[in-house]
Fold each of these.
Amino acid sequence: MSEPDTITSLETKTRPWWLRIPLTLQIAIALLLAVSLGIALGAGNPSPENATFITNLAIPAELVLKALRALATPLILVAVLHTFMTTTIPGTAGRRLAVLLLTNTTVAILIGLLVANVLHPGSWGTLAAPTGAEQVTGQSVDPWGLFKDAVPDAILKPLVDNNVIQLIVIALSFGIVLRALKSEQIAQGKTAYQPIEDVIAILFEAVIRILNWVIALVPLAVFGIVAKTVAERGFAPFQSLAAFIVAVLVALVLQACYYLTRVKLGSWVNPIKFLMGGSDAFITAFSTSSSTVTMPITFEVLQTKLGLRESSASLGALVGANFNNDGTALYEAMSALYISQVIGQHLDLGQQLIVVLTSIFASVGAAGIPNAGLVTMTLVFTSVGLPTQYIALLVTVDWFLDRCRTAINVMGDMTVSALLDGKKPRTLDEA
Ligand code: ASP
């Protein structure tokens, strides 16, 4: 990921001054202005002559969502291809790594679904249906059908249908093949793979840059949707969102406890030392909302503060920052359940199973950059027929929850490194 990040940081320096205000501050200002406008427009009692204006306030959020939906599939595709072509994973450790990643992510999603089913944050208040909400299409689910559907009819079809499972099948197939071709060519002293690798790196950077444009519009979207919600419904809907925030935080804390237990049982690292030594990485993750930007710090603390072997540190930190996003998976599953509760569309066990599966894939495909989870969440919603317009309301709290789940994403990478390091500390010879 090094080239794209360098280009992005160069680009940052040439931005106009208003775009250099931190996004969180922009969103905070947008929230304040939106609440004032919402109150001025009636706070739950709007006058009929303002109706069209109030309805149109949702337009920026609708456009942002459409753009996020459109970017989700290319982002996953190039992110997976890029990781496969550029990261080195030794054979046996690779298999262990895959098992660890899969179990941790599945546990994260199950914790998320459990907390959402128990606390039921969607029933703590009401949320208005955003204008133009799609018709809810409850689907009953046949797991075999899901299996049969995993292979698309045409290679580009998942990109068009926004089908995350099919997309990952395509991305993984091409990723594995391109990777194998690259090693064969390197062994034969050939370099024909290089142009493809460069093209993928450039495309990856291009998608991220376009995503950055869309994210630059998020404060405007938040302003519009919050002003509209306050104007039409007063503050009642935010009670429900507050419940959602509490539920997500509870689930993330439980996930952190799960990591500490695994570290205690499966590695030589002391969990307290793990927490203290990792604090630099957690704080950086929280303040940047990006596990990719945090990656060098994660790698550093794993080696210097926790004393892990370089091989385990690099596998967990480097591969993890790209593929392992447990906090994101947990969040996406909880969001789907929360919105289903809000709109009173019960998701049965089969549908929750689909949420588990698509959240796993969506989190694998979510790049370690701010708000990536919001982008791939559209795919989870689509898979169980939930209206994606509701994601506009989640945008208003995403700036905060993104930070929290990024810290958990990084903690997940560190846990994997500790487990790969095993039960015996590094000896002096290995140091
Ligand atoms: N911001 C997260 C990360 O960098 C991804 C997400 O949006 O969930 O890990």
Amino acid sequence: MHMIAIGCDHGGYQLKQEIIKYLEEQNIAYKDYGCYDEASVDYPVYAKKVANAVASKEAEKGILICGTGIGISIAANKVKGVRAALCHDCFSAQATREHNDANIVAMGARVIGPGLAVKIVDIFLHTPFSNDERHVRRIAQIEE
Ligand code: RB5
């Protein structure tokens, strides 16, 4: 697996540390785009750092965490070529890879716990895109 970009705001900092622990245990290469402590910051800054890394193909996929996962996913989706999926369940994590070829998973640290979050990341990173014609067509329409 190529490099994974990870980022968060202050609301997601603790959960990001849990996800990083998982990535290290799995020997998955990653780059941490911050933030690096729980001081209050603005989530669009970190959303764009990770989104740009993914859009430029510097990173294969991205992981973004804020309090709800909502603000950081909205901001990431403004970057062309990014498909950031807010996932708080395993079914969505699998489906968004198979159907949307999502390249960023976003989660809310105030919504789910670390056990489920790590499972979602694991599914997200290891589920391939289906490559079905209808899904390829629909993804192309997003970019039009
Ligand atoms: C920060 O307090 C909070 O607004 C942020 O983490 C996120 O939930 C925004 O969508």
